[in-house]
Amino acid sequence: MADELISLTIDGVPVSVPKGTLVIEAAKQAGVLVPHYCYHPGLPVAGVCRMCLVDIEKAPKLQIACATQVAEGMVVRTQSPQAKSGRMGVLELLLINHPLDCPICDQAGECELQDFTFQEGRPATRYSPDYAKRFNPVEDFGPDVLYVPNRCILCTRCVRFMEDVAKEPVLNVSERGDRAYIGIHSEGRLDHPWAGNVVDLCPVGSLLSKDFLHKARAWELDKAASICTGCSQGCNVTLDTRENVVVRVRPRSNLEVNRYFVCDHGRMNYRWMNRGDRIEAPLVRRDGELHATDWDEAFALVASRLRGAGGKGVALVSPRASTEALFFARELFRGHEWSGAFQVVMGEEAPLAGVPNLALRAERAPNGRGAELLGYSRDYRAALVAAETAAVVLVLDEPDIAVSTAGALLYVGTVLPERARDAQAVLPIANVAEEEGTFVNRDGRVQRYFQAKSAPGMARPAWWVLSELVATLQDQGGRHVGTAAEAFDRLAASVAAFHGLSYAQLGFAGAPTPAAATAPA
Amino acid sequence: MGYPHKPHSKETLVLSKHFGEADARTYKGWVKRGGYEMLAQALTMEPARVIDVVKESGLRGRGGAGFPTGLKWSFMPKEKKKPHYLCVNADESEPGTFKDREIMRWTPHALLEGAAIAAHAIQAEVVYVYIRGEFTEPWAVMEKALAEATAAGVFGAIKLHLHRGAGAYICGEETALMSSIEGKRGNPRIKPPFPAAAGVFGMPTTINNVETLAAVPPILKKGASWYKGLSLASPKSTGTKLFSVCGHVQRPGNYEVTMGFPLKDLLYDLCGGIRPGRTLKACIPGGSSVPILNREETEGCLLDYEGVVEKGSMLGSGGVIVFDDSTDMVYQIMRLARFYAHESCAQCTQCREGTAWTTKILERILAGQGKTADLDLLLDLADNMTGKTICVLSDSCAAPVVSGIKKFRNEFEDYLAGRRKPVMVA
């Protein structure tokens, strides 16, 4: 095992790291980011950009931190004059053929070439302005990827991703010397289901997403940690918003779930978060029509209907609803004969070959596992049959409802489908980008997502809406739930499958449910 | 050497003894000359014993680096757990070097025999001979020789394959050569892992130069002490070495001399001196990648690994490029830089961009549009290109620039000051 620890010093900071650790990773532990381009922890080491040159005591020349393993007693200096001048030399050379078209480049603001040049580059180039820079036309690599060769610094991250991670080697380095560029197989396309990751991996603005092209400047974006809702894998993502509009989904690293990657399906699965046709106020049925009202009246009316209903209740829920919402949807029927079910849209499975247990899953639902743990059934058809004779039917954000019932229909959702117009009440809720909550992925990992934008009008998180209803039903005894943390902690205290977990402890990386933690991998 | 000139009395003919003899190319002709006796003998020896003999002989790599051959072989795992490979570097592409070509053209069996002995010593069952793609005649000769010797069954269990390069200088770099054999782009790899641990196809591999391996059968035949005794200067450099002399001498060609032989004698005696009416200006002693020597250094230089280093250059591959006083050194250095810029594999930033930029600056100087700061810029670029990349192609481009500016600065300054007429168009 790699239990053996090696002690070394990096810029005067002593660190101890497992044997075999690369200097560049050990430096992170010392709080030192060694500038680099070709190195990426999710890819095999190439050692070609030569940017991470550092001074190692007793070594005859500068070494690259990305390909040098730590050794006992090693003394690394990243800021020695030799190391700094070596890296400054690399930066100058990287820039001689770089167009410096930052004002029109999508990468500007999140560009590693900009960042490191600011940090330790030369103030002015010595590459005489009478030289023309290398020019190659923009190429269309795939459904969502453009290649701008003029900006390329040939770090080969994209080539290595396609070859070693996606295992579909359609990219290469073509030509030699300063004529080199990234080539694509003459009969190939960059259309692998995970190909979009090359855009994130590209340290400069050479590989661009067509979807994000010229959409926003990096510094205008707000970022929120989230979980992809594209399937049951539960990839950690960041939602980038501009002026309350989600404009981009990017992977957020989680070594336990998706390492550094997200598939194209997940990446493109955000437009619905910006839908304009949202329900913005609670609607209640009065004189055969739905009328907008405030939350107090809505809660009072729904509570009275529920109290008066003697028969069984049925909940038809979305597997995209938060675990907390699903929990309170069930609590609503506490003491009643109850059944709940969800349905999952199925698609094609698309694994990322180079990473074990990572795929776009056939089950296109982020919280199917959470629904199961809370007692919801996958037998949606049976639930529909039960709904026909139920006293109360709750539909939670399932716009494709095809339900008919003799009882009262309660619709809790983000948008108002035609069939929900028969409901006794319609309660507007926030979507995943507009609230906090958790999902449980297919492996039983509970993961938090954070709010990226505000919800329209009076829409509120489903867990809040449903917990308020529960509180209203319980009259004076009802406890109000003010935060997602409280909602989760109520759930964890009450449902055995979640015992021992706390919202705070889930953090940004999530944690397995007790059952998943002890289950054999 | 025996081709195309008659051997000179000061030469020591070991490798080139049969150059020019068409009959020596055939299996029968080679056997008649005592060929394959040493292979047969070696196959009965313990591999470790063969390595010991080569270690004792003091044989060092003839491809350029001069690493002790026996020591290199001993790096291979003693206990064989994976297949072992021997790669023969016959991708001779260094400007000014054409010795391996002649070995393959005239004595292909010497190479094959040496390679098979080496394979036995390192317990390799497969040998890849990586031949430069442009070497059409040597290829044809080698192919025929290999077919004849294989048919005669001399190699026992050892399989030899010829692999033809596709015209990339960088594939002569040992790790790039392995990548190329594997069918990949010929890019050098970062070391470690070293080839003896993980070489071609990830298996323990040794890579030797053609001339190195061709010297092995004579060493076994005449003994390590005989070979060790072939040394005129430093005892660390033993045996004979083929020098490919080109440029402004009367008789360019390959010459085989004992290690430590004076460069002056090579040029003035063996090669018949500089062209009539001209004098020596400079010399590159070891292929285009090594620093340039001026006249004084050249005339005082002894041709062995230590002797050339003493003069500030390297023995390299033994490709001697001679420049007389008519030479425009700036232009020559630009031509070298242009070669490296063309051949850079494009992996490392310093090499990919630095070789091309260096060439552009030199071209600009030659076009009469140089700037005063250009020489300092060239030297600073050269510093960035030295010792900072995966392989030494970038260093090789920098070496002649640095030594050229140091030793022939006035020629650069003549262009910069407009005292010399531009020879290029910007």
What does this structure look like?
- The complex is a heterodimer of chains A (521) and B (426).
- With 521 residues, chain A is an alpha+beta fold.
- Chain A has 14 helices and 25 strands.
- Chain A has helices spanning 23-29, 81-96, 112-120, 157-165, 197-201, 264-267, 295-308, 323-331, 368-373, 380-388, 462-473, 484-494, 503-506, 514-518; strands at residues 5-10, 13-18, 53-56, 63-64, 75-77, 139-140, 145-147, 171-174, 181-184, 207-209, 222-227, 236-242, 245-251, 283-286, 289-292, 313-317, 338-342, 350-351, 359-360, 392-396, 408-413, 425-428, 437-440, 445-449, 511-512.
- In chain A, strands 15-14-22-21-20-16-17 form a 7-stranded mixed sheet, with helices on both faces.
- Chain A has 3 domains: 5-93, Ubiquitin-like (UB roll); 99-274, Alpha-Beta Plaits; 283-518, Rossmann fold (3-Layer(aba) Sandwich).
- In chain A, a hairpin with a 4-residue loop joins strand 6 and strand 7 (145-147).
- The mean pLDDT of chain A is 94.
- Chain A is elongated.
- In chain A, helix 7 (295-308) crosses helix 11 and helix 8 (323-331) packs parallel to helix 11.
- By secondary structure, chain B is α/β, with parallel strands linked by helices.
- Chain B folds into 3 domains: 22-228, NADH-ubiquinone oxidoreductase 51kDa subunit (Rossmann fold), CATH 3.40.50.11540; 237-324, Ubiquitin-like (UB roll); 329-416, de novo design (two linked rop proteins), CATH 1.20.1440.230.
- Chain B contains 19 helices and 11 strands.
- In chain B, a hairpin with an 8-residue loop joins strand 8 and strand 9 (293-294).
- The longest helix of chain B has 18 residues, at 349-366.
- Chain B starts with 26 loop residues before the first helix and ends in a 10-residue tail after the last helix.
- Chain A binds chain B through residues 45-51, 53, 61-62, 64, 67, 86, 89-90, 92-94, 96-97, 126-128, 131, 153-154, 156, 172-173, 175-180, and chain B through 168, 170, 185, 190, 341-350, 352-357, 360, 364, 371, 373, 377, 380, 383-384, 387-390.
